[in-house]
Amino acid sequence: MEFFKPLVTIGIPTYNRPKGLKHTMECAVNQTYANLEILVADNCTEPKEDVTKIVEVHKIDSRVRYVRHEKNMGPLFNFEFLFSNAKGKYLIIFPDDDHYDDPNLIEKYVQSLELAPAASGAMATVDYIDSSGEAFIRDEPPYQLDGSLIERLRVYLINNITDHIMYGMFCTHYVRDYKFERDVYTPEKFLILHLLVKGPIIDCFGAGYKNIYSFKTREEIDRLYNRPPTKNHHLLWVRRAYSCLPFFQALAICVIYLSIKTPKLSWPIRKVLQIPKVHPGRTHFHDPITPKNRPVGK
After folding, report:
1. Which of 43, 101, 248, 263 is deepest in the core (most CB within 10 A)?
2. Please, which domain of life does this record's source organism belong to (predicted)?
């Protein structure tokens, strides 16, 4: 079947990772899907030449657009910049530390979304890669986020669906003016919640990418976002659920959600209601090899 070829923006947020950016740029320009905008947002990498010499290699490609911020505004600002400046009908984020080696990835996503006009986005398979270069977890479809509003919120809030859904492909107009929740540990969860309210997130089979897992301490995460969190993550989620559902549906989800997040109630509630701890599409291969437990010489 022949598909209309809408413009797709590949947004590449980067900061002080020239080696990763080089690989990510190659993954982007080598996609078989041709109608692309490749937007690189540099959060003031120093020295500047580490990034510009990589971008210059691809300057012959008119699809590449490079923007450097005058100072490091933090990762959330960089994502918001990509959201508001993307020109494509669809947007996908290629972080500068992950691997998007499938040259047909964009093609597969576009085909899935063009067949589902009500969808807000699509998600494929993600392999989590540890420091040995091996996958220790795989998340793959079906994610079960394509039902009614209450059903997809229930599945996402309760079944621990991967937060890497934000690195799938989604409709740009739904995030054009989106602002991340500040002062929480996992701001990406609220973006996904926002997208689920706008429409289903559909499965994209036969496609995927590799998340090069970063083993950060809580202190490192606090430094990354410039400050420790000051907002109660779970209560904020509950408030959001109330704002987009009828009262009794919101109440039911909130009671279940807060119960399973309470350590002494979690197991019996999941047992009685037959709620899986993780979604059925997750495969755990082995405990991850981290820089700290990696064998000598490996």
Report:
1. 43
2. Bacteria
pLDDT for res 296: 43
Does residue 117 share a domain with residue 247?
no
Residues 169 and 242 in one domain: no
Token representation of residue 272: 């009685």
Tell me which of 225 and 6 has the higher pLDDT. Answer: 6
User: Domain tally for the chain?
Assistant: 2
| Window from 139-143, 160-164, 189-193, 196-200 with minimum mean pLDDT | 160-164
Q: How many helices (H) and strands (E) does the chain have?
A: 10, 9
Question: What backbone torsions phi and psi does residue 124 show, to the nearest 5 degrees?
Answer: -110, -160
Element (H, E) at 67: strand 64-68
Look up residue 157 and give its two tokens.
């809030």
The predicted-structure confidence for 74-99, as pLDDT tens digits, reads as follows 999 999 999 999 999 999 999 998 89
Dist CA 92 CA 78 (whole Å): 14
Structure tokens at 131: 């420091």
How far apart are the C-alpha atoms of 27 and 104, rounded to whole Å? 10
**Which tokens belong to 137?**
């977890």
Backbone φ, ψ for residue 92 (5° rounding)? -135, 140
| pLDDT given at position 235 | 72
Q: Is 76 strand, coil or helix?
A: helix
Report in angstroms the alpha-carbon separations of 262 from 3, 66, 81, 271, 274.
Answer: 48, 46, 36, 14, 17
**This prediction's pTM:** 0.87
- Is residue 95 situated within a structural domain? yes
Whether residues 34 and 180 fall in one domain: yes
Residue numbers of the domain that contains 235? 228-276
